[in-house]
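I am still learning, so can you show me any protein sequence you like together with the matching structure tokens, please?
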Amino acid sequence: MEMIEYFIARRIVVDGALHSIAKRHQHRKNEEQGATITALMANDAKQEATIAQQQKQIDTLTAAVQKVSARLEVSKAAPQAVVNNR
């Protein structure tokens, strides 16, 4: 009977140790996931800033193209005098 009690007690100790190891592993895994999430959020913020900057550049270029197009339309519509030197 003592042998059975020893094995039961030993099993309880081993199970406790395994549970402790599993909890530490899960804690480490959670910390790693938290760090990954933080890094992804920082990257997302950088991308949003880049997108905003690019949108401003697009708006500026669009306005410049519209001005040039308007000037071309005005120059096409203006009558031009032809000089004939003959």
In short: The chain has one helix and no strands. The radius of gyration is 37 Å. Residues 4 and 32 are 42 Å apart (CA to CA). The mean pLDDT is 91.
